[in-house]
Specification:
The chain contains 19 helices and 2 strands. The protein has helices at 2-14, 17-35, 40-48, 57-82, 91-102, 106-139, 144-161, 166-181, 206-224, 243-265, 272-285, 298-321, 327-338, 347-350, 352-381, 388-407, 411-428, 434-456, 468-493; strands at 183-184, 191-192. It has a two-stranded antiparallel sheet.
Length: 515
Protein backbone atom coordinates (compact mmCIF):
# COMPACT_ATOMS: atom_id res chain seq x y z
CA UNK A 1 0.00 0.00 0.00
CA UNK A 2 2.90 2.33 0.74
CA UNK A 3 4.15 1.96 -2.82
CA UNK A 4 0.65 2.62 -4.15
CA UNK A 5 0.38 5.83 -2.09
CA UNK A 6 3.77 6.99 -3.28
CA UNK A 7 2.74 6.30 -6.87
CA UNK A 8 -0.44 8.37 -6.37
CA UNK A 9 1.72 11.21 -5.06
CA UNK A 10 3.89 10.75 -8.14
CA UNK A 11 0.82 11.21 -10.36
CA UNK A 12 0.00 14.45 -8.52
CA UNK A 13 3.52 15.63 -9.43
CA UNK A 14 3.49 14.38 -13.03
CA UNK A 15 0.05 15.80 -13.79
CA UNK A 16 0.94 19.41 -12.99
CA UNK A 17 0.59 21.56 -16.13
CA UNK A 18 4.35 22.19 -16.38
CA UNK A 19 5.37 18.54 -16.04
CA UNK A 20 2.59 17.43 -18.36
CA UNK A 21 3.87 19.87 -20.97
CA UNK A 22 7.40 18.48 -20.67
CA UNK A 23 6.04 14.92 -20.93
CA UNK A 24 4.28 15.86 -24.19
CA UNK A 25 7.40 17.57 -25.49
CA UNK A 26 9.51 14.55 -24.58
CA UNK A 27 7.34 11.99 -26.35
CA UNK A 28 7.10 14.17 -29.46
CA UNK A 29 10.88 14.66 -29.62
CA UNK A 30 11.48 11.00 -28.80
CA UNK A 31 9.22 9.80 -31.60
CA UNK A 32 10.94 12.16 -34.03
CA UNK A 33 14.47 11.01 -33.13
CA UNK A 34 13.32 7.39 -33.18
CA UNK A 35 12.10 7.86 -36.74
CA UNK A 36 15.37 9.43 -37.93
CA UNK A 37 18.06 6.75 -38.32
CA UNK A 38 21.39 7.41 -36.61
CA UNK A 39 20.15 9.93 -34.05
CA UNK A 40 18.40 8.01 -31.27
CA UNK A 41 17.33 9.00 -27.74
CA UNK A 42 20.84 8.97 -26.25
CA UNK A 43 22.06 11.66 -28.65
CA UNK A 44 18.86 13.68 -28.22
CA UNK A 45 19.15 13.70 -24.43
CA UNK A 46 22.86 14.53 -24.63
CA UNK A 47 22.08 17.52 -26.85
CA UNK A 48 19.40 18.75 -24.45
CA UNK A 49 21.45 18.33 -21.26
CA UNK A 50 23.11 21.79 -21.43
CA UNK A 51 19.77 23.43 -22.19
CA UNK A 52 18.10 22.04 -19.05
CA UNK A 53 20.39 23.54 -16.40
CA UNK A 54 17.72 26.02 -15.28
CA UNK A 55 14.85 23.53 -15.31
CA UNK A 56 13.49 21.73 -12.29
CA UNK A 57 15.21 18.29 -12.17
CA UNK A 58 11.83 16.51 -12.09
CA UNK A 59 10.61 18.30 -15.23
CA UNK A 60 13.87 17.66 -17.09
CA UNK A 61 13.95 13.95 -16.24
CA UNK A 62 10.27 13.54 -17.16
CA UNK A 63 11.10 15.01 -20.57
CA UNK A 64 14.16 12.74 -20.93
CA UNK A 65 12.09 9.66 -20.02
CA UNK A 66 9.52 10.70 -22.64
CA UNK A 67 12.30 10.96 -25.22
CA UNK A 68 13.52 7.48 -24.26
CA UNK A 69 10.09 5.86 -24.54
CA UNK A 70 9.27 7.86 -27.67
CA UNK A 71 12.46 6.68 -29.33
CA UNK A 72 11.37 3.08 -28.78
CA UNK A 73 8.03 3.85 -30.45
CA UNK A 74 9.33 5.92 -33.36
CA UNK A 75 11.78 3.39 -34.71
CA UNK A 76 8.99 0.98 -35.65
CA UNK A 77 7.31 3.44 -38.02
CA UNK A 78 10.18 3.64 -40.51
CA UNK A 79 10.99 -0.04 -40.04
CA UNK A 80 7.50 -0.88 -41.27
CA UNK A 81 7.00 1.78 -43.95
CA UNK A 82 10.55 2.14 -45.28
CA UNK A 83 12.41 -1.00 -44.19
CA UNK A 84 14.78 1.48 -42.48
CA UNK A 85 15.09 0.86 -38.71
CA UNK A 86 15.29 4.12 -36.77
CA UNK A 87 16.82 2.20 -33.83
CA UNK A 88 18.92 -0.96 -33.70
CA UNK A 89 16.24 -2.53 -31.50
CA UNK A 90 13.66 -2.24 -34.32
CA UNK A 91 15.68 -4.21 -36.89
CA UNK A 92 13.57 -7.31 -36.25
CA UNK A 93 10.36 -5.31 -36.73
CA UNK A 94 11.45 -4.51 -40.27
CA UNK A 95 11.62 -8.21 -41.21
CA UNK A 96 7.88 -8.86 -41.00
CA UNK A 97 6.58 -5.29 -40.74
CA UNK A 98 7.81 -4.13 -44.12
CA UNK A 99 6.54 -7.31 -45.77
CA UNK A 100 3.11 -6.58 -44.26
CA UNK A 101 3.29 -3.01 -45.61
CA UNK A 102 4.21 -4.19 -49.11
CA UNK A 103 1.26 -6.58 -48.97
CA UNK A 104 -1.12 -3.69 -48.21
CA UNK A 105 -1.29 -4.31 -44.44
CA UNK A 106 0.80 -1.35 -43.27
CA UNK A 107 -2.13 -0.06 -41.17
CA UNK A 108 -2.34 -3.34 -39.23
CA UNK A 109 1.44 -3.50 -38.74
CA UNK A 110 1.59 0.06 -37.40
CA UNK A 111 -1.36 -0.58 -35.11
CA UNK A 112 -0.01 -3.78 -33.56
CA UNK A 113 3.38 -2.10 -33.05
CA UNK A 114 1.84 0.94 -31.33
CA UNK A 115 -0.64 -0.98 -29.18
CA UNK A 116 1.95 -3.63 -28.31
CA UNK A 117 4.37 -0.92 -27.28
CA UNK A 118 1.68 0.63 -25.08
CA UNK A 119 0.79 -2.68 -23.42
CA UNK A 120 4.42 -3.65 -22.82
CA UNK A 121 5.44 -0.18 -21.66
CA UNK A 122 2.54 -0.02 -19.18
CA UNK A 123 3.19 -3.48 -17.74
CA UNK A 124 6.93 -2.79 -17.64
CA UNK A 125 6.40 0.48 -15.77
CA UNK A 126 4.14 -1.28 -13.27
CA UNK A 127 6.90 -3.85 -12.70
CA UNK A 128 9.38 -0.99 -12.28
CA UNK A 129 7.17 0.58 -9.59
CA UNK A 130 6.79 -2.79 -7.84
CA UNK A 131 10.36 -4.08 -7.95
CA UNK A 132 12.56 -0.97 -7.73
CA UNK A 133 11.69 -0.30 -4.03
CA UNK A 134 12.48 -3.95 -3.21
CA UNK A 135 15.86 -3.64 -4.92
CA UNK A 136 16.48 -0.45 -2.93
CA UNK A 137 15.70 -2.16 0.39
CA UNK A 138 18.25 -4.84 -0.43
CA UNK A 139 20.82 -2.37 -1.75
CA UNK A 140 20.90 -0.10 1.32
CA UNK A 141 22.17 -3.02 3.39
CA UNK A 142 25.26 -3.46 1.20
CA UNK A 143 28.72 -2.14 2.00
CA UNK A 144 31.43 -0.59 -0.21
CA UNK A 145 32.93 -3.94 -1.24
CA UNK A 146 29.58 -5.19 -2.58
CA UNK A 147 28.91 -1.93 -4.43
CA UNK A 148 32.41 -2.08 -5.89
CA UNK A 149 31.87 -5.65 -7.08
CA UNK A 150 28.46 -4.83 -8.60
CA UNK A 151 29.84 -1.84 -10.50
CA UNK A 152 32.85 -3.83 -11.72
CA UNK A 153 30.44 -6.53 -12.94
CA UNK A 154 28.30 -3.94 -14.72
CA UNK A 155 31.34 -2.37 -16.34
CA UNK A 156 32.71 -5.75 -17.40
CA UNK A 157 29.48 -7.12 -18.84
CA UNK A 158 28.82 -3.97 -20.87
CA UNK A 159 32.37 -4.18 -22.19
CA UNK A 160 32.42 -7.91 -22.88
CA UNK A 161 28.97 -8.26 -24.45
CA UNK A 162 28.91 -5.31 -26.84
CA UNK A 163 30.59 -5.52 -30.21
CA UNK A 164 32.20 -8.40 -32.04
CA UNK A 165 35.61 -7.78 -30.48
CA UNK A 166 36.14 -7.81 -26.72
CA UNK A 167 39.50 -6.12 -27.24
CA UNK A 168 37.75 -3.13 -28.79
CA UNK A 169 35.27 -3.09 -25.94
CA UNK A 170 38.04 -2.98 -23.32
CA UNK A 171 39.86 -0.32 -25.33
CA UNK A 172 36.70 1.79 -25.31
CA UNK A 173 36.13 1.42 -21.57
CA UNK A 174 39.81 2.26 -20.99
CA UNK A 175 39.30 5.53 -22.85
CA UNK A 176 36.27 6.30 -20.67
CA UNK A 177 38.17 5.56 -17.45
CA UNK A 178 41.07 7.74 -18.61
CA UNK A 179 38.75 10.66 -19.41
CA UNK A 180 37.17 10.24 -15.98
CA UNK A 181 40.60 10.61 -14.31
CA UNK A 182 41.24 14.07 -15.79
CA UNK A 183 41.27 16.69 -13.04
CA UNK A 184 42.27 16.62 -9.38
CA UNK A 185 42.36 13.61 -7.10
CA UNK A 186 39.35 14.02 -4.74
CA UNK A 187 41.39 12.91 -1.70
CA UNK A 188 44.95 14.14 -2.20
CA UNK A 189 44.25 17.08 -4.52
CA UNK A 190 46.98 15.91 -6.90
CA UNK A 191 46.48 16.84 -10.54
CA UNK A 192 45.92 13.98 -12.99
CA UNK A 193 46.19 14.10 -16.79
CA UNK A 194 45.85 17.90 -16.95
CA UNK A 195 49.05 18.37 -19.04
CA UNK A 196 49.74 21.74 -17.43
CA UNK A 197 46.40 23.22 -18.58
CA UNK A 198 44.73 24.94 -15.60
CA UNK A 199 41.26 24.72 -17.16
CA UNK A 200 41.47 20.91 -16.95
CA UNK A 201 41.97 20.95 -13.18
CA UNK A 202 38.23 20.67 -12.55
CA UNK A 203 37.95 17.73 -14.93
CA UNK A 204 35.98 17.34 -18.14
CA UNK A 205 32.30 18.13 -17.88
CA UNK A 206 30.34 14.96 -18.54
CA UNK A 207 27.77 16.91 -20.58
CA UNK A 208 30.45 18.16 -22.98
CA UNK A 209 31.88 14.64 -23.30
CA UNK A 210 28.47 13.09 -23.98
CA UNK A 211 27.55 15.71 -26.59
CA UNK A 212 30.94 15.34 -28.30
CA UNK A 213 31.00 11.55 -28.44
CA UNK A 214 27.37 11.07 -29.45
CA UNK A 215 26.36 14.10 -31.49
CA UNK A 216 29.58 15.52 -32.96
CA UNK A 217 31.15 12.11 -33.60
CA UNK A 218 28.00 10.85 -35.32
CA UNK A 219 27.71 14.01 -37.42
CA UNK A 220 31.33 13.64 -38.57
CA UNK A 221 30.73 9.98 -39.39
CA UNK A 222 27.58 10.66 -41.40
CA UNK A 223 29.31 13.50 -43.25
CA UNK A 224 32.12 11.15 -44.26
CA UNK A 225 29.67 8.56 -45.60
CA UNK A 226 26.84 10.72 -46.88
CA UNK A 227 24.98 9.18 -49.76
CA UNK A 228 22.18 11.18 -51.34
CA UNK A 229 19.13 9.02 -51.86
CA UNK A 230 15.42 9.62 -52.11
CA UNK A 231 13.10 7.67 -49.85
CA UNK A 232 9.50 7.00 -50.73
CA UNK A 233 7.06 5.89 -48.07
CA UNK A 234 4.33 3.33 -48.54
CA UNK A 235 0.97 5.16 -48.34
CA UNK A 236 -1.15 4.14 -45.36
CA UNK A 237 -4.42 5.33 -43.88
CA UNK A 238 -5.55 5.28 -40.28
CA UNK A 239 -3.85 2.38 -38.42
CA UNK A 240 -6.41 -0.21 -37.29
CA UNK A 241 -6.68 -3.92 -36.43
CA UNK A 242 -9.37 -6.46 -37.20
CA UNK A 243 -10.70 -9.12 -34.85
CA UNK A 244 -8.29 -11.75 -36.18
CA UNK A 245 -5.35 -9.38 -35.80
CA UNK A 246 -6.21 -8.79 -32.14
CA UNK A 247 -6.51 -12.54 -31.58
CA UNK A 248 -3.08 -13.17 -33.08
CA UNK A 249 -1.37 -10.24 -31.32
CA UNK A 250 -2.30 -10.24 -27.64
CA UNK A 251 -0.28 -13.31 -26.66
CA UNK A 252 2.88 -12.11 -28.46
CA UNK A 253 2.49 -8.77 -26.64
CA UNK A 254 2.53 -10.52 -23.26
CA UNK A 255 5.36 -12.91 -24.18
CA UNK A 256 7.42 -10.03 -25.54
CA UNK A 257 6.90 -8.10 -22.31
CA UNK A 258 8.04 -11.10 -20.25
CA UNK A 259 11.24 -11.30 -22.30
CA UNK A 260 11.98 -7.58 -22.57
CA UNK A 261 11.75 -6.42 -18.95
CA UNK A 262 14.38 -8.71 -17.37
CA UNK A 263 16.80 -8.23 -20.27
CA UNK A 264 16.48 -4.46 -19.95
CA UNK A 265 17.37 -4.67 -16.27
CA UNK A 266 20.54 -6.67 -16.91
CA UNK A 267 23.86 -4.94 -17.65
CA UNK A 268 24.36 -4.93 -21.43
CA UNK A 269 21.02 -6.74 -21.84
CA UNK A 270 19.56 -3.98 -23.97
CA UNK A 271 16.59 -4.36 -26.30
CA UNK A 272 18.28 -6.14 -29.21
CA UNK A 273 18.57 -9.58 -27.59
CA UNK A 274 14.95 -9.87 -26.33
CA UNK A 275 13.58 -8.69 -29.69
CA UNK A 276 15.53 -11.47 -31.45
CA UNK A 277 14.36 -14.00 -28.82
CA UNK A 278 10.77 -12.82 -29.11
CA UNK A 279 10.84 -13.23 -32.89
CA UNK A 280 12.25 -16.76 -32.51
CA UNK A 281 9.64 -17.70 -29.89
CA UNK A 282 6.75 -16.41 -32.02
CA UNK A 283 8.10 -18.24 -35.05
CA UNK A 284 8.07 -21.51 -33.10
CA UNK A 285 4.66 -21.00 -31.48
CA UNK A 286 2.72 -19.56 -34.40
CA UNK A 287 -0.19 -21.39 -35.99
CA UNK A 288 0.67 -19.71 -39.29
CA UNK A 289 4.32 -20.66 -39.94
CA UNK A 290 3.87 -20.16 -43.67
CA UNK A 291 3.43 -16.40 -43.12
CA UNK A 292 6.78 -15.87 -41.41
CA UNK A 293 9.13 -14.23 -43.84
CA UNK A 294 6.14 -12.95 -45.80
CA UNK A 295 4.47 -10.63 -43.27
CA UNK A 296 3.36 -12.38 -40.07
CA UNK A 297 1.72 -10.01 -37.58
CA UNK A 298 3.15 -11.98 -34.63
CA UNK A 299 6.63 -11.11 -35.89
CA UNK A 300 5.81 -7.43 -35.36
CA UNK A 301 3.75 -7.66 -32.15
CA UNK A 302 6.20 -9.70 -30.08
CA UNK A 303 9.47 -7.87 -30.84
CA UNK A 304 7.86 -4.44 -30.45
CA UNK A 305 6.52 -5.42 -27.03
CA UNK A 306 9.95 -6.76 -26.00
CA UNK A 307 11.55 -3.55 -27.24
CA UNK A 308 9.42 -1.26 -25.06
CA UNK A 309 9.36 -3.50 -22.00
CA UNK A 310 13.16 -3.43 -21.99
CA UNK A 311 13.04 0.38 -21.67
CA UNK A 312 11.19 0.07 -18.36
CA UNK A 313 13.58 -2.67 -17.27
CA UNK A 314 16.54 -0.38 -17.96
CA UNK A 315 15.22 2.22 -15.51
CA UNK A 316 15.07 -0.30 -12.62
CA UNK A 317 18.86 -0.57 -11.96
CA UNK A 318 19.28 3.09 -12.94
CA UNK A 319 16.93 4.37 -10.24
CA UNK A 320 17.52 1.65 -7.63
CA UNK A 321 21.31 1.24 -7.89
CA UNK A 322 22.54 4.15 -9.99
CA UNK A 323 23.75 1.57 -12.53
CA UNK A 324 23.19 2.40 -16.24
CA UNK A 325 22.75 -0.57 -18.57
CA UNK A 326 22.68 1.23 -21.94
CA UNK A 327 23.74 4.50 -23.51
CA UNK A 328 20.46 6.33 -22.87
CA UNK A 329 20.47 5.31 -19.21
CA UNK A 330 24.08 6.48 -18.99
CA UNK A 331 23.16 9.94 -20.26
CA UNK A 332 20.17 10.09 -17.91
CA UNK A 333 22.52 9.24 -15.04
CA UNK A 334 24.73 12.11 -16.20
CA UNK A 335 21.63 14.33 -15.97
CA UNK A 336 21.12 13.34 -12.33
CA UNK A 337 24.75 14.20 -11.58
CA UNK A 338 24.38 17.48 -13.48
CA UNK A 339 21.55 18.51 -11.15
CA UNK A 340 23.62 17.67 -8.08
CA UNK A 341 21.55 14.58 -7.25
CA UNK A 342 23.43 11.59 -5.84
CA UNK A 343 22.36 8.43 -7.74
CA UNK A 344 22.10 5.13 -5.92
CA UNK A 345 19.80 3.38 -3.41
CA UNK A 346 19.31 6.53 -1.32
CA UNK A 347 17.72 8.27 -4.31
CA UNK A 348 14.29 6.90 -3.35
CA UNK A 349 14.74 8.22 0.19
CA UNK A 350 16.31 11.58 -0.64
CA UNK A 351 14.31 12.46 -3.78
CA UNK A 352 10.93 10.69 -3.51
CA UNK A 353 9.06 13.43 -5.39
CA UNK A 354 11.45 13.19 -8.34
CA UNK A 355 11.54 9.38 -8.47
CA UNK A 356 7.82 8.73 -8.13
CA UNK A 357 6.93 11.67 -10.36
CA UNK A 358 9.22 10.17 -13.00
CA UNK A 359 7.67 6.69 -12.67
CA UNK A 360 4.13 8.11 -12.84
CA UNK A 361 5.09 10.14 -15.92
CA UNK A 362 5.97 6.89 -17.72
CA UNK A 363 2.33 5.77 -17.49
CA UNK A 364 1.24 9.15 -18.82
CA UNK A 365 3.89 9.15 -21.56
CA UNK A 366 2.83 5.69 -22.72
CA UNK A 367 -0.76 6.86 -23.10
CA UNK A 368 0.32 10.00 -24.94
CA UNK A 369 2.49 7.95 -27.29
CA UNK A 370 -0.40 5.68 -28.20
CA UNK A 371 -2.65 8.66 -28.90
CA UNK A 372 0.06 10.38 -30.95
CA UNK A 373 1.44 7.43 -32.91
CA UNK A 374 -1.79 5.86 -34.12
CA UNK A 375 -3.03 8.88 -36.11
CA UNK A 376 0.36 10.42 -36.94
CA UNK A 377 2.47 7.41 -37.97
CA UNK A 378 2.49 8.23 -41.72
CA UNK A 379 3.38 11.86 -40.94
CA UNK A 380 6.41 10.82 -38.85
CA UNK A 381 7.82 8.84 -41.74
CA UNK A 382 8.00 12.02 -43.82
CA UNK A 383 10.71 13.34 -41.49
CA UNK A 384 13.12 11.18 -43.46
CA UNK A 385 12.71 13.55 -46.38
CA UNK A 386 14.74 16.20 -44.52
CA UNK A 387 18.07 16.44 -46.38
CA UNK A 388 20.82 14.90 -44.25
CA UNK A 389 23.23 17.86 -44.64
CA UNK A 390 20.62 20.21 -43.14
CA UNK A 391 19.76 17.76 -40.37
CA UNK A 392 23.32 17.18 -39.16
CA UNK A 393 24.28 20.82 -39.63
CA UNK A 394 21.52 21.60 -37.15
CA UNK A 395 22.82 18.93 -34.78
CA UNK A 396 26.32 20.43 -34.89
CA UNK A 397 24.91 23.91 -34.25
CA UNK A 398 22.97 22.83 -31.16
CA UNK A 399 25.90 20.69 -29.94
CA UNK A 400 28.22 23.70 -30.13
CA UNK A 401 25.69 25.99 -28.49
CA UNK A 402 25.02 23.49 -25.70
CA UNK A 403 28.68 22.80 -24.98
CA UNK A 404 29.44 26.52 -24.73
CA UNK A 405 26.43 27.08 -22.46
CA UNK A 406 27.79 24.63 -19.85
CA UNK A 407 30.58 26.91 -18.55
CA UNK A 408 30.51 29.83 -21.03
CA UNK A 409 34.15 29.04 -21.91
CA UNK A 410 35.58 28.82 -25.43
CA UNK A 411 37.91 26.11 -24.14
CA UNK A 412 34.93 23.72 -23.97
CA UNK A 413 34.52 24.12 -27.73
CA UNK A 414 38.09 22.87 -28.20
CA UNK A 415 37.29 19.88 -25.98
CA UNK A 416 34.10 19.34 -27.99
CA UNK A 417 36.04 19.25 -31.26
CA UNK A 418 38.79 16.98 -29.92
CA UNK A 419 36.39 14.49 -28.37
CA UNK A 420 34.15 14.69 -31.44
CA UNK A 421 37.16 13.60 -33.50
CA UNK A 422 37.67 10.79 -30.97
CA UNK A 423 34.04 9.73 -31.46
CA UNK A 424 34.56 9.69 -35.22
CA UNK A 425 37.75 7.61 -34.85
CA UNK A 426 35.93 5.12 -32.61
CA UNK A 427 33.26 4.62 -35.24
CA UNK A 428 35.90 4.31 -37.93
CA UNK A 429 37.74 1.51 -36.12
CA UNK A 430 34.66 -0.23 -34.74
CA UNK A 431 35.03 0.70 -31.06
CA UNK A 432 31.62 0.70 -29.32
CA UNK A 433 30.55 4.01 -27.80
CA UNK A 434 28.63 2.74 -24.77
CA UNK A 435 31.63 1.30 -22.82
CA UNK A 436 33.34 4.71 -23.00
CA UNK A 437 30.31 6.49 -21.55
CA UNK A 438 29.78 3.83 -18.86
CA UNK A 439 33.49 3.92 -17.99
CA UNK A 440 33.42 7.71 -17.73
CA UNK A 441 30.41 7.65 -15.39
CA UNK A 442 31.25 4.59 -13.28
CA UNK A 443 35.02 5.17 -13.12
CA UNK A 444 34.96 7.89 -10.41
CA UNK A 445 32.29 5.98 -8.48
CA UNK A 446 34.32 2.77 -8.61
CA UNK A 447 37.34 4.70 -7.35
CA UNK A 448 35.25 6.14 -4.49
CA UNK A 449 33.97 2.72 -3.38
CA UNK A 450 37.48 1.25 -3.70
CA UNK A 451 38.88 3.91 -1.36
CA UNK A 452 36.04 3.33 1.14
CA UNK A 453 36.63 -0.43 1.12
CA UNK A 454 40.34 0.06 1.84
CA UNK A 455 39.62 2.63 4.56
CA UNK A 456 37.26 0.24 6.37
CA UNK A 457 39.80 -2.60 6.16
CA UNK A 458 42.77 -0.39 7.16
CA UNK A 459 44.40 -0.99 3.80
CA UNK A 460 44.00 -4.78 3.87
CA UNK A 461 43.23 -6.12 0.39
CA UNK A 462 40.78 -8.62 1.90
CA UNK A 463 38.44 -5.67 2.36
CA UNK A 464 37.58 -5.99 -1.33
CA UNK A 465 35.75 -9.28 -0.68
CA UNK A 466 34.69 -8.80 2.95
CA UNK A 467 30.98 -9.36 2.18
CA UNK A 468 29.35 -12.58 0.90
CA UNK A 469 27.68 -10.82 -2.02
CA UNK A 470 31.03 -9.38 -3.13
CA UNK A 471 32.51 -12.89 -3.19
CA UNK A 472 29.63 -14.17 -5.31
CA UNK A 473 29.82 -11.26 -7.75
CA UNK A 474 33.59 -11.65 -8.15
CA UNK A 475 33.02 -15.35 -8.90
CA UNK A 476 30.68 -14.30 -11.72
CA UNK A 477 33.32 -11.80 -12.93
CA UNK A 478 35.95 -14.55 -12.97
CA UNK A 479 33.59 -16.83 -14.90
CA UNK A 480 32.92 -14.13 -17.51
CA UNK A 481 36.65 -13.52 -17.94
CA UNK A 482 37.53 -17.22 -18.10
CA UNK A 483 34.65 -18.35 -20.28
CA UNK A 484 36.19 -17.42 -23.68
CA UNK A 485 39.33 -19.38 -22.81
CA UNK A 486 37.30 -22.39 -21.66
CA UNK A 487 35.15 -22.27 -24.81
CA UNK A 488 38.25 -22.00 -27.01
CA UNK A 489 39.90 -24.96 -25.29
CA UNK A 490 36.68 -26.98 -25.61
CA UNK A 491 36.49 -26.33 -29.36
CA UNK A 492 40.15 -27.25 -29.84
CA UNK A 493 39.99 -30.54 -27.98
CA UNK A 494 36.54 -31.59 -29.11
CA UNK A 495 37.06 -34.36 -31.71
CA UNK A 496 35.56 -34.17 -35.15
CA UNK A 497 34.96 -30.42 -35.15
CA UNK A 498 36.86 -27.70 -36.88
CA UNK A 499 37.01 -24.13 -35.73
CA UNK A 500 34.90 -21.78 -37.77
CA UNK A 501 36.89 -18.89 -39.14
CA UNK A 502 35.03 -15.59 -39.11
CA UNK A 503 36.00 -13.27 -41.97
CA UNK A 504 37.70 -10.13 -40.74
CA UNK A 505 35.14 -7.99 -42.54
CA UNK A 506 32.35 -9.45 -40.38
CA UNK A 507 34.04 -8.49 -37.12
CA UNK A 508 33.16 -4.86 -37.67
CA UNK A 509 29.91 -3.26 -36.68
CA UNK A 510 27.41 -4.08 -39.46
CA UNK A 511 26.18 -0.49 -39.47
CA UNK A 512 29.66 0.86 -40.22
CA UNK A 513 31.56 0.84 -43.49
CA UNK A 514 35.20 1.35 -44.32
CA UNK A 515 36.42 4.73 -45.46
Amino acid sequence: MDTFNLLLQGFSTALTPMNLMFACLGVLLGTAVGVLPGIGPAMAIALLLPLTYNLEPTSALIMFAGIYYGGMYGGSTTSILLNTPGESSTVITAIEGHKMAKAGRAAQALATAAIGSFVAGTIGTALLAAFAPLVVKFAVSLGPSSYLAIMVLGLLTVTAVLGASKLRGFASVGLGLAIGLVGMDPVTGQQRLVFGIPLLSDGLDIVVVAVAIFAVGEAFWIAAHLRRSKMSTIPVGQPWMGKQDWKRSWKPWLRGTALGFPFGAMPAGGAEVPTFLSYSVEKKLTKHPEEFGHGAIEGVAGPEAANNASAAGTLTPLLALGLPTNATAGVMLAALIQFGIQPGPLLFQNEPILVWGLIASLFIGNTLLLLINLPMAPLWARLLRIPRPYLYAGILFFATLGAYAVNLQAFDLVILLVLGALGFAMRRFGLPILPLIIGLILGPRIENQLRKAFQLSAGDISGLWSEPLAVGVYAVVALILAWPLVALAWRRFRPGEEAVQVPASLERDPHQSRL
